[in-house]
Design goal:
With 353 residues, the chain is mostly helical. It has one domain: ABC transporter involved in vitamin B12 uptake, BtuC (Orthogonal Bundle), CATH 1.10.3470. Helix content is 74%, strand content 3%. It is built from 14 helices and 4 strands. A hairpin with a 2-residue loop joins strand 2 and strand 3. Helix 2 (11-37) packs across helix 14 (324-338), helix 4 crosses helix 12 and helix 8 packs across helix 9. It starts with a helix and ends in a 15-residue tail after the last helix.
């Protein structure tokens, strides 16, 4: 039995678990010290959690695009972060024009609807073109080839938008209707945060219902299982894949509008960090799983908002919030050590693999 155990457990396994235990110790020890210090009251923790949920809502809509494309094609579309950038970066010029005419705040619901539709259409159209031009010719190539192509497409789109719209920052005008707070129970919450969280949840439910309950969604799941057999059953595989990219692109465009509600400045490089975090969220929740992407995004958002104060403040670190990204990705490593397939991901047995 001991010999079998030695064969199963490698040096790499031991190193990985030592890293995991070290992360767990820092998280538990830091949290205990912070809570014992009593520096923050319950109100601060609630505010941080709500901020994290709002961030998670933005990451969720981007992560949904990653996860449905991976679910159908089993490829990581690293250009998706630029699909996310393209919508709000294009729509900012419509927003500025509406604001200049006075229409922006006199008709806020119509204005935000027009801007949202434009962002979704631009992102969705760009995603379809990307699939047709860059990915379709490489569909049966080795998996590394479309991955490298996606990275190249990401750089191409970044610098194409820089060339078209310039490298400067563009600021969205403020919506008067979304200024201030709403009181939920006895807790004041920024209106923008409420809109982002609720919108992300609704979008996730719509997308999940589309994938699980509609004829198109059933075809997408069939293509995900086996493209060749799906084609023999009469499914137009090319059309289904294009639809997948269109839906993922639209979700990214909507995510871009939610992003500018929280951070109302856009530029050609704005998609890189949110896209990276959204990909992390998709992996954390179980890539290829729609509810998993949403759950992973919410967890990542809360870790990013709450983690620095909870884990590091009690350990005497002067500016813990500067380490928010390091904390989020470190916790990701810890969770994937415990469950490599993600929180809601399918456990793949050795036989199936």
């Amino acid at each position: 039995m001991l010999r079998t155990l030695r064969q199963r457990i490698t040096v790499a396994d031991i190193v990985v678990w030592i890293i995991g235990l070290a992360i767990a110790f820092v998280v538990v020890y830091g949290s205990i010290k912070t809570l014992q210090a009593g520096k923050y009251d319950a109100r601060v923790w609630i505010d941080l959690t709500i901020t994290g949920l709002a961030l998670g809502g933005v990451y969720a809509l981007i992560a949904l695009g990653y996860t449905i494309v991976y679910g159908v094609l089993k490829m990581i579309n690293f250009a998706h972060s630029e699909i996310f950038m393209s919508g709000p970066f294009t729509a900012v010029f419509l927003a500025l024009a509406l604001n200049k005419s006075g229409f922006w705040n006199s008709h806020p619901f119509i204005s935000i609807l027009l801007v949202t539709i434009l962002a979704a259409v631009v992102s969705s159209t760009l995603a379809i073109l990307l699939e047709k031009i860059a990915y379709r010719p490489l569909r049966y190539a080795p998996r590394l080839v479309p991955l490298i192509t996606a990275i190249g497409a990401s750089f191409f789109l970044q610098y194409a938008f820089r060339g078209f719209f310039g490298s400067g920052l563009q600021a969205y005008p403020e919506l008067d209707i979304l200024k201030g707070t709403w009181t939920i129970g006895s807790i004041p919450v920024y209106k923008t945060q409420v809109v982002v969280i609720v919108s992300a949840l609704i979008m996730m439910l719509i997308l999940y219902g589309f994938v699980m309950l509609t004829k198109m969604g059933k075809a997408m799941r069939a293509v995900s299982e086996d493209k060749d057999v799906a084609g023999l059953m009469g499914i137009d595989v090319d059309r289904i894949i294009s639809t997948t990219f269109a839906v993922g692109g639209a979700a990214a465009g909507l995510g871009g509008i939610l992003y500018i509600l929280l951070f109302p400045v856009v530029h050609f490089f704005m998609g890189f960090i949110p896209g990276l975090k959204a990909f992390t969220a998709a992996v954390l929740g179980g890539i290829g799983n729609v509810p998993g992407a949403f759950l992973g995004a919410m967890i990542l958002g809360i870790l990013e908002a709450v983690g620095p104060s909870l884990f590091l403040n009690g350990m005497g670190i002067a500016a813990p919030y500067q380490l928010k990204d390091a904390i989020a990705f470190t916790i990701l490593v810890f969770i994937l050590i415990i469950r490599p397939s993600g929180i809601l991901g399918e456990r793949i047995t050795q036989t199936k693999a």
